[in-house]
Amino acid sequence: MSSPRYNKVRLCAFRLKHNLPAKKFYALKFPETVKDSLKNLVAERDSRPKDKVGIPITSLNEALRASIPGLIYIGKIWEKIWLYSPVEIPIDKLSAIFSYWLDTEFPDEHPNKRKKGITFEQRQAVMQLLSNPNNLKWEPVTLKTELWKKYANGTANITEDADGFILLPDILATQLSDPNLKFKLSDETIQFYRCAPIEGAGAELISWPPLSYTQKNHTYYYSIVLTLKVQTVPFQPYPQLQCDMSIRRWSSRNDTGLLPGGQASSVYIRTKLQWGEGLNPYGYTEYFQVAPLIWKSGLKWDNNLARLLNEFNRLPYTPEQILANPTQALNLLDIPNICMTYKDGIIPGHKVGKGLPPINRRQLAEQIAFLLQDHWELIDYKRFKFKIDTKQSAQIFDLPKPDGTSWELPVPDKEKGETEEEFLTRTQELLNKQEGQRNKIKKKKTENDEQFNLRYEQILDKQQLERDKCQKKEDETDEHFQLRYAHYEKRLEKLSSEKIRLCEAIRNCIGKELTIEIWYINESTRDALIKAIWYCLGLKTATTGIHNFPDIDLTVTIRTQEIGKLAERLALSTDKTKKPNSKQREEAINSRKAEVAESVNKMQPVTGKVGVLVELYGENHWKPEWTDPQAAIRLGFVQEKIDRVSKFIVPAHEELKKKYEKVAKDEGRELNRREQNEINELQEELPQKTITSFLDLLRSLGVQIAPPRIVIPSVTLPNPLTYVGLWLVNRTSKTSAHGKQQLIPVMVKMRSDYQAIEAIFNGISDWIPYDEALRKINLKGTSITGDNNELKKEIKGFIKRMLQTKELRGKDTLLLCDAQNIRRYWTWLQDKEISQDGIVFGTESPQMMPKLRVVRVRQDGETPEWYALHDQEKQKAKLFENLVELEQISVATEGLFNTDSNERIFLSIGQKSNTMPKEKLDFSKFDKPQLHWSNPAILELVVAYIQPEDDPWHWAVLTHELRRMALQYKDTLARPIVLHLGAQMGDYVLMVDEDSLKDE
Questions:
Q1: Which of 123-132, 248-257, 910-919 has the lowest mean pLDDT?
Q2: Cα separation of 194 and 69, whole Å?
Q3: DSSP secondary structure string for all residues of 740-783
Q4: Helix 673-700 × helix 523-537 angle, to 10°
Q5: In terms of CB atoms within 10 Å, which of 154, 443, 550, 735 comes out highest?
Q6: Are 543 and 584 in contact, with CB atoms under 8 Å apart?
Q7: What residues does the pPIWI-RE module N-terminal domain cover (predicted)?
Q8: Can you tell me whether residue 260 is helix, strand or coil?
Q9: Could you tell me the CA-to-CA distances from 398 to 88, 371, 936, 966 in Å, in that order?
């Protein structure tokens, strides 16, 4: 096997080359005397004790941010410094905003009838304190970056006396949004403006004016988003600046419906105050601030920001007008701009796909690096090269996929070449297509003649390459055909052997009897699921009934049942303005659970384990989303004496077919080609969907294709080795069905010499089979309660007890933990606390625990985006107006990567998902804006605690390889298998679905 060509990944993250020059600012503290007076007002307004209230400072900070572009940083009033500015902002200008803020937050008559009004005299008393020049004074400060300290474990400390680092994202955001700075993205010219981050610390920028994509006479708008934040990495003595890139789509259809399910949509507002240069002496670009728009007995703003901004400079549109005509509110050629974010679920949908391809991420990152090159540099990681002994290690499940809807591996035929006439026809079609493309090229408003001519020449060069590649297809050679046929025979052999392995795994992990029930809506889905089981197990016939495997003493029974009313909405309000309370939700769930039990009890009883494949309607059927029955059905099947685990499938082809057939019938016609093609495309996805669903169900039943043994040549690892995933099932009061927070710690265990999967959770004392744990956690799982200190104590106590069970005590064990999931309660996993010297559960010194190893993983927003660089090949890329030659980048790569500066940190990158577009290396967002793009995310591995004789990289390799141990197609898991299975246990805890409609 040849070595990979992409042996370096470049992170979209920067490190300092050296200390930055000191910067001078003016700082303003929020006066202590005013804090006390404000709390008095809040206590009176809310009729609550003074020590139980906070100050509604958020709306003031947001108004300052939107109104005064010259402010670099706005903190919390409890921090040492509240405001930072490059110049002294006139206090009288600030006082005007304070006055509007007091009037908005503490009006004479509060619109919320549960709150009291505050008199003008009371507001004036506070205003006098705020206007007192002795209370508000700008003080000159000098910020430096050489003052940051290190924690005891060697990790950079950027919170203690390190305002220079806290301000960095905001300082750089101001630099990147300079009004004279324009970036290139492919051939588009974009400019960035600062905006409020959706969540967390850091700074955010959006491109404006927005980019556009037109489809079927409708134009859809979107912006590029840059998110800047300072991150620490365990044991790394310096911080890094992470630069994430994404797409934010704006509501663009005038016939947009109501916000889905009563959820709020964020509205970005850019206004311009005519208060003179004193507020913005350096001419910084205006700031987009965020105000949520929500439906609560009518459309209204969900905070006071919009009302406050309206006092300064009246907004031209009401909430109703924004929703009725969001494109008009964008006001593309002027200010103010009011931009409502599009959310998945809003009807009609947005036609621009999410995500940026690598070529665009690289172009932006390299341009930013060019601007910052005097002080900053992009961070590179190199491929960590290792080998796995594939003969001694567990063979990963590798079931060849059927092609299309045939459910077969097609027998290859020898390919014939083109006739001269066919070749000429194809050539002419290409020429016609290229002519059409050239005719559509128009000069953009942002381009001058030179830029347009350059872009036109690049398109001509690209078309010439296409013509050069357009060669007549000759007859396939015998040699090439024999190679293809040999590949087909290998796939056929692999298919046969994997079917046998899967049946043996079922027998070893489940026992002699397995029943698969298919609860269906559409007969086509039922038939496809039966075919999927037939395909995976090698059944003689694709039929229901009993299927025997006498050689391994296994019986598989397939039963089908029309799901009927169980798939309908829960008995809850369908009025989006009347969200049911927790008691109503729990009653509806319990009612559906009883209906599930009644339906199951009418069926013939079965012996052995039972898995259920359930077809449900698509998400458009659940409006609002609290009527979705999925959680209730799942919990209905795991009830005592029902004892079934379930997997849900939502095929889209039938709903689309019914929709198009109705439209065609109403119009008195047959389905047109486009409609039929869309239906056919969805039908072709059905075999893959149903096979994946069946394999997922087997995984939930505890089926593992082989013991997860991983052998590294010339490395002596413990054998047997136990892998344990620690997970905290965490349901907030909003996402729990009964309205109470639920915290249930769980562990999932696998052994390198044992095929079964076991689990344990708070509430039981013994390890039990994984599928049994899924069925019992809702009934027997004990949620941990108390204040934050009590929660920490109980959760850490659970971890200590489990590590001392006979199954783990004194056994070689690799404990895997997800940082974002549990570090709040087990604080030893936090960057500043994690230690190589031992485990800490309380205030004690680090403890050595024999034979235990701990690896912490994290991902999502806490790990940077990346692109891979080729060892030798080059490609041209446009940085600003210059065409330069850089290393060729990869659409995706996989592997383990590290850096010489930190032997305990590794980056695990999985395979490109099968759902990702198959595009060329130079594929840009603007080539096909409608495509969704998601690169494999980095999983950061921190080899935290190991034994003295261990080498850190061994445990990083094991953790990386455990992402490939799932019973599924080759797609790599987001987390190692034991953590993946632990996270899935949360699906079986009584809850309502979390809001999936997050702002982009």
A1: 910-919
A2: 9
A3: S-EEEEEEEEEETTEEEEEEEETT-SS-EEHHHHHHHHHHH---
A4: 50
A5: 735
A6: no
A7: 13-394
A8: helix
A9: 66, 47, 20, 10
Look at phi and psi of residue 639 and say left if phi exceeds 0, alpha if psi is from -120 to 50, else beta: beta
Distance between CA atoms of 211 and 926, rounded to whole angstroms? Answer: 9
Predicted local confidence at residue 615, as pLDDT: 96
- Each residue of 427-446: pLDDT tens digit? 999 999 999 999 988 887 76
The token pair that represents 575 in the structure block: 């009025």
Contact 611, 646 (CB under 8 A): yes
Q: Which neighbouring-strand residues pair with 728?
A: 745
Question: If we measure between CA atoms, which residue out of 242, 20, 28 comes closest to residue 143?
Answer: 20
Please name the helix (run of DSSP H) or strand (run of DSSP E) that holds residue 803, with its range, or none.
helix 788-803
Residue 224 CA, distance from chain mean position = 17
CA distance 489 to 483: 10
- CA gap 935, 924 in Å, rounded: 13
pLDDT of residue 998: 36
* pLDDT classification of 163: cutoffs 50, 70, 90: low
Residue 1: per-residue pLDDT = 42
260 — pLDDT class (breaks 50, 70, 90): low
Give CA separation, 377 vs 162, 367, 876, 880, 937, in Å: 21, 12, 21, 18, 22
DSSP state, 542? S
| Cα dihedral across residues 122, 125, 131, 134: positive or negative | negative
Q: Report the candidate in 611, 694, 601 with the shortest Cα–Cα distance to residue 646.
A: 611
Q: Is there a contact between 35 and 41 (Cβ–Cβ < 8 Å)?
A: no
Q: Which of 858, 822, 847, 833 is nearest to 726 (CA)?
A: 822
What are the C-alpha distances in Å from 362 to residues 13, 102, 194, 922? Answer: 11, 46, 21, 11
Backbone CA torsion sign across 759, 762, 763, 766: positive
pTM over 0.85: yes
**Distances from the Cα of 290 to the Cα of 67, 272, 341, angstroms:** 13, 15, 10
Instruction: Kindly tell me the burial class for residue 421, based on how many C-beta atoms sit within 10 Å of its own C-beta (0-12, 13-18, 19 or more).
Output: exposed
266 contacts 382 by C-beta, under 8 angstroms: no
State which H helix or E strand residue 939 sits in.
strand 938-945
Structure tokens at 1000: 């982009």
Contact 748/978 with Cβ under 8 angstroms? Answer: yes
Per DSSP, the three-state class of 377 is strand
111: Cβ–Cβ under 8 A, 6 or more apart, which residues?
A: none
Helices 770-780 and 673-700: crossing angle in degrees, nearest 10, is: 90
* Burial of 172: CB neighbours in 10 Å, binned 0-12, 13-18, 19+: buried
Per-residue pLDDT band for 997 (boundaries 50, 70, 90) equals very low
- Close Cβ partners of 656 (under 8 Å, ≥ 6 residues apart): 678, 679, 682
Q: Report the pLDDT value the prediction gives residue 861, as an integer from 0 to 100.
A: 85
391 CB burial (10 A radius; 0-12, 13-18, 19+): exposed
875-to-381, 462, 868, 921 alpha-carbon distances in Å? 20, 14, 13, 10
Taking residues 648-670, what's their average pLDDT? 89
Which among 473, 60, 481 is positioned nearest to 303, based on CA atoms? Answer: 60
- CB 737 within 8 Å of CB 582: yes
Rounded to an integer, the average pLDDT of 518-522 is 96
